[in-house]
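Complex 296.
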Amino acid sequence: MSVPENRLRIAVQKNGRLAERSLDLMREAGLRVMKGANDLLYRIENHPIDVLRVRDDDITTFVADGVCDLGVIGLNVLEEHAARRNGPRPEVVMRLGFGRCALKIAAPAEATWQGPEALAGRRIATSYPGVLQSWLRERNIEAEVVELHGAVEVAPRLKVAHAICDLVSTGATLEANGLKAVETVLESEAVLVRAPGGPPEAHQHLADVLTDRLRGVVAAQGAKYIMLNAPRSSLDRITRLLPGAGAPTITPLAGANDAVAVHAVCQENVFWETLEGLKGAGASAILVLPIEKMMM
Ligand SMILES: Nc1ncnc2c1ncn2[C@@H]1O[C@H](COP(=O)(O)OP(=O)(O)OP(=O)(O)O)[C@@H](O)[C@H]1O
Ligand SMILES: O=P(O)(O)OC[C@H]1O[C@H](OP(=O)(O)OP(=O)(O)O)[C@H](O)[C@@H]1O
Ligand SMILES: [Mg+2]
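Predicted structure with adenosine-5'-triphosphate bound:
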């Protein structure tokens, strides 16, 4: 595979839980992704950028070594890489708001959990030996860590280990295997990483532009634009009810002295309960609109 030196390189997962969302993110940031004959390398049509599609475990290595300028990776994979390898590590640029999960210790559901100290002298199966070892070290617990690369949840049933340390999202896999989560080792989500010390000079400007756009894409996710009419006397109450909003814009309404229009960007979810509360405070004609793009 030949990778031209003058193009910015972004590493994303080829297949798996982060793959599609990572490409969507690039598209939302205005990159036109061209799926060519080369499955490992997608070109960006409208910018000098290449997207490298690899196993998620390899993304950290490519970004740490500066082979790629940017990467999208689970924080769990990044931390594991850092725990195992000395030397410069990729820098986290921003959290991306998807791929949320947590690395947890889980034990048989029927056993009473006596706290982390109960793990001393026990065997723990995990695909994250580096992160787990540091967690145990911080607590002065000596346990035997058994590295497995899949089906970690069956280890206790097979008597391979007493407990496990694995990713949990809904908890369905733990439940199906008769296990319960007892400790959280790491909260994770997908993050944008960059090469240690930042990209080389030639890629700096493009990397900054893209990073700014991605910041806007992430900020717009879940953000809503809210518009309503309100009596002036209720403004304080109504402003307090707007979730995660900065200072709202207040405009007079034509022909009405005591009523104003309120416009605000809400950074948090706007639930039906919020609208009911606003209505109860005197608001009317409440509109909630999605935000497509945002530049901070
Ligand atoms: N159940 C889950 N819910 C949400 N996010 C998850 C879940 N499981 C894993 N993730 C996140 O998605 C990332 C990728 O998960 P995936 O299962 O696709 O990895 P993988 O099998 O190691 O893939 P690869 O083939 O690239 O090595 C994980 O590292 C984690 O950050
Ligand atoms: O709490 P839950 O929602 O059940 O999710 C947890 C499961 O998801 C991940 O595995 P995945 O399904 O990606 O399969 P894998 O083990 O083959 O990677 C993780 O390794 C857990 O096994
Ligand atoms: Mg992997």
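The pocket of magnesium ion (ligand 3) is lined by residues 55-57 (CB under 6 Å).
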